[in-house]
Amino acid sequence: MRRLKKLYFLLIFVIIGLSFILVCRFFCCDSCFFLKPLPQSIPLKIRMDVYGDGHFGSPRNGGRKHRGIDLQASLDTPVLAAKSGFVVKTDYDKYSGYYVVIWHWPNLKSYYLHLPEIEVKKWQPVKQGQVIGRVGKTGNAKLKGIKPHLHFEIREKGIPQDVLKRWDLSFLIRENVEMGMVFYGIS
Ligand SMILES: [Zn+2]
Questions:
Q1: Ligand 1 centroid to 11 CA: how many Å?
Q2: Is 64 found in the same domain as 132?
Q3: Region 108-132: what's the mean pLDDT?
Q4: Ligand 1 centre distance from Cα of residue 94 (Å)
Q5: CA of 155 to the centre of ligand 1 (A)
Q6: Counted domains in the chain
Q7: Cα(57) to centroid of ligand 1, in Å?
Q8: Domain membership of residue 132 as a residue range
Q9: How far apart are CA 147 and CA 114, in angstroms?
Q10: How far, in Å, from the CA of 77 to the mean position of ligand 1?
């Protein structure tokens, strides 16, 4: 009887341990860094055209400020999940076009705007680097003079962050500022 009890506790211990490893694999292993949301082979450029500049904080109509970064890329370039998480929103509005929001543990969300269509489902778990859409020109990116780009944004507790600066400091290295950036985890 005692042996059985011991075995029982051992089993529980193993199950808890395994679940912990699984959860960690999904949420933590890649959670040290954000991956560039476009394929590594594509050189990245921050959008710069007659309508404006795609850096964080650059001025927009009506005194607004740009809340993300615009990564210039040709139409239909695959858009990748910057980090593992769950799709918490897929929607359309006239400014953002078709967009996807992914929640990342514990309080971060990444936004992918101007997609040509929605290719993921709400509450779908996604792995870092998984294709979640393509570069498009919907919403206010549809104007002819605006170069095709992915508007990429990270919010912490709902507040848009300066992706380049913020993630430079903690766990990202920014490379090749002129050409855009490549995100590498350093931990
Ligand atoms: Zn933008």
A1: 51
A2: yes
A3: 96
A4: 13
A5: 14
A6: 2
A7: 10
A8: 34-185
A9: 12
A10: 16
